[in-house]
Amino acid sequence: MTLGLDGCATPGAIVRLALAAMGTRFELVLVGPREPELLAAGEAALEEIKWWHNRLSRFERDSDVAFIAREAHLRTASNPIALDPDLFDLLAMCEQARARCGGVFDVRLGDAMDRWIAGESLPREHAARPMAEIVLDPIRRAIHATGGVPLRLDLGGVAKGFALDRAVEVLRSAGINNAIIHAGTSSIIAIGPGQGGNGWKVRFDGGAERADGSATVDSLNDASSEAASLDVTLHDEAMSVSSPSGRTVASPDDTITPSGHILDPRSGLPAPMGRTVAVLSPLSPTSPTAAANCEIWSTSLIVAPNLLTQLPSLMTAIIRDQSDSDWSVHAAAESGPQRSRARSFPCSVQTLSTLTCPTHSAAEFAALETL
Amino acid sequence: MAPTRRSFLAQSVGALGAMAILPELSYARSQPAAKLNIGLVGAGRQGRAIISELQKMENVTIIAVCDNEESRAAGGARRATGSTAYTSHTAMLAAAKDLQAVVIATPTHLHTQIALDCIAAGKHVYCEAPLAHTADDCRKIATAASAARSLFAVGLEGRSNPVYQLARTFYRTDSVRDAISAEAQSFQKTSWRFPAPNADREKEVNWRLDPAISLGLPGEMGVHQFDVAFWYTNSYPSSVRTTGSVRFHKDGRTIADTIATEMILKDELRFNYLASLTNSHGGKYELFRGSNAAIKLGWSHGWMFKEADAPTQGWEVYANRQQFHNDEGITLIAGATKLAEQGKLKEGVGLPHPSVYYSLWDFMVSCTEGKPAVADASVGARATIVAILAQQSIIEGKTIDITPDMLKV
C-alpha cells in the first residue's frame, strides 16, 4: 500500500512514527502546526496500540486473552471475569458479527489456528471438536464461558483494526485532526484532509503472486499490475484489505503450495485463494469501531462472498475475485446509490494485500511518501 | 495415558531437583481471604493498568476512582464498573464510607499529601514508586506509616515478582556464588512528553520534564531497578555518581534523556545503571554476575547463564533453555516444581500476569490477612532517597557519598 503525501501546500510540521506490535508494523503520519505536540500525540497513540497488543495477543502469556483462556471456563455467571469496557465492547461486537455472518466470522478459533499453524489438517475433526460458548454479562461488563473447555480466542481478524480505532481516539482527544495510521498495510484510518487538502491517497492491488503466495517485487512495478491496481482517496474513513495469501504448505515432494491464512470457522477449511477484498467505512463519533468493523467484514467476505447482502450500512466493499479480473464496487444496500471510489494516484505501487510479511522498512515507507 | 520412561524421568528429576533447591514459588495463588473495597487515586496510564489487574482478582472491588482531571476520573470510573468518580482524594475519603484501601498512582510529587491523608483516615495504602519527590517527604510518609495501624505498601514490583523471588534464591546460594558485578538498563524510545488538553495544562501534564519536581530517569525509571539490586545484595550504596545529558530530545528540556549511574554497594560491588529515552535496544533488564553464573531478569522472564566449570544440578538436565547469540540461558520458571510434576515445564515460561499484578496481589493479601507489606514505607523511602541522590548527582556534577544517616527513616 502506498500512502500519499501529495504536495506541500500546508505549512507546518509532519511527524512519522512506527511501532512493531501484533506481529506487524504500525505506522502513522501526523500533520499539524508544531512538531512537539504532534510527537506527544503520536507517541500516546502508539502507546495505546501497545496497550492493546499486550491485552489482545494470544501469544503473550500475560495478556487478557490468555487470562480468559485460563479462567473463563472455570468461572460462572455469579463470578465472571470483569473486563475493561472497551474489551467487553470488542467481544460483544465480535459476537454480533458472528450472528450476523452466520458463523463465518468467529473469534473462538485460537485452538484451531494453533493447530493450523502447526500444520495439522483440521477439517476432519474440526466440526466434532467441542467449542466454548461465550457468555457476556452487559451489566457487569464481564465474561465467562460454558461448554467445559477453555475459551481460546483468536482476535487476529479484528485486533489491528480495533487498535487503530483506539489510537485514533487518542489522537482526536489530543487535538489531532489530520493524520493517517495503518497496521501492517492491511488496515488503515485516515482523518482530516491530508497534507495537500484533498484527502489521503492510498493505492492497492492484488499483485502477481509467487507460488508461495507472496507478491513479487517485479509485480510492484509491473505495468500490468499497476493497471490492475486501485486508487482510493480517504476522507475521515477506515479501510481494511484482506486476501488469503501468505501461508504455504509443503507437500512430501517439496512442492510449495499457497494456502490461505484465513480459516472458515464453520468447516476448518482455509478460504479459497485469489480473492481480494477491501472494505471502507466512514468515521463518525457514533462508530468508534469503524476499522475493526472493516476488518471483520473484509475477512468475512473472503470466506463467504454471499455475505455482501449483509454488509452494514455506510460500508463499501471493493472486490476482485482473481488477480486478472476487474475490481467491483459494492455499497451496502442501505447506503444509497453506488459510488465509484477509484481515483488516479501517480506513484509507485506497494501491494497491500499480498505481502508475505506485512511489514516494510521505515526507509521504504519514507521513500514511498516522497514519490 | 501411562507416562513414558522419558516423561517419568523428566517429571521425577525435574520435581526432585527443583524441590532440592527451590522454594515453592507458585503463581497459582488463592484468592484474598476477605473482600476488599479499593479506591484508586490517579487515573492516568498507570492507573488504567492497575484497574485492569485489580479486576482480575476475585473478592476485590474498585468502588472509587479519583483524578484531579474530571474527564480522566470519569474515564477511570467507566473502566472500573460500578465505581464512583471523584476529583479530589479528600472528597473520596469523606464520601466513600466503605473504602478500606487506597492505591495511589498520581505523579510522584503529589504522593505525599494523598498518602498522609489516607493514613490519617485509617486506610490501607499502596503507593507507586518512587515514594515522593523529596527525601523529607519520604521520611514524613515513612514516619506516619510506621505509627499507623493500617498497612502501607510501596509498589516496588521486583520484590513481589515470582521470577525475581525465584532468581534471588539462586543469587543467594552457590548457584551464582561470588558476586562480581550488578548492572541494569532501561532503554526505550519516547519523548517522555504527553499530549495536554490545552497550553495551560502542558506543564502539569509534562511534570516529568519539570526539573523543579521531576526525579528524572533515576527516579521515574531507575528506582524499581535500583531496589532489585538493593534487595538482592541486602545492601544500600555508600556512594552514587550519575552523568546525564540531553542527547536527542533537544526541545528545550533540561531533564537528561540519557544517563549512566554507578553505585558502590556492600563489599565494593559495583552496580552500573544505564537509561535512555532515545533508543530501545535491549529494553529493561537487570544482570547479576557471579563466579558460577550470571542471572538476567527481564520482569516477565528470567534466565541463568552458567559458567562451564560451575557444578551441574540434577534438574538442569531437563530445564527449559533459550539461546542468546553465543550463550544458552536456563529459563527460570516460577512454580517449576508443580509444572515439572505435570510435565508442563515449558508452559511456565514467562509470567501469566504483568509484573504490577503481583505487587497489587501481595498488597491485597497483606490487607486481608494481616501480613506485613512486602515492600513497606521504609523500604520505599530508602530506594527513593537513593534515586533522588542519583538525580542530584547529575545536577551537581559530582559523586555523592551516602552515609547510613541519609537513609535513616
What does the model show?
The complex is a heterodimer of chains A (about 375) and B (about 400). Chain A has an eight-stranded antiparallel beta sheet. Chain A is an alpha+beta fold and about 375 residues long. Chain A folds into two domains: about 1-55 and about 155-370, T-fold, CATH 3.10.520; about 65-145, no CATH class. Chain A contains ten helices and 16 strands. In chain A, α1 (about 35-55) packs antiparallel against α6 (about 160-175). Mean pLDDT of chain A is about 80; it is low at about 1-10, about 205-225 and about 335-370. Chain B has a ten-stranded mixed beta sheet, covered by helices on one side. With about 400 residues, chain B is of the alpha/beta class. Chain B contains twelve helices and 16 strands. Chain B has a domain at about 160-350 and about 385-400: Dihydrodipicolinate Reductase, domain 2 (2-Layer Sandwich), CATH 3.30.360.10. Chains A and B meet through α1, α2 and β4 of A and α2 of B.
Describe the structure using short key phrases.
heterodimer; A: 371 residues; alpha+beta; T-fold; 2 domains; eight-stranded antiparallel sheet; three-stranded antiparallel sheet; 29% helix; 22% strand; globular; disordered N terminus; disordered C terminus; B: 409 residues; alpha/beta; Dihydrodipicolinate Reductase, domain 2; ten-stranded mixed sheet; six-stranded parallel sheet; 12 helices
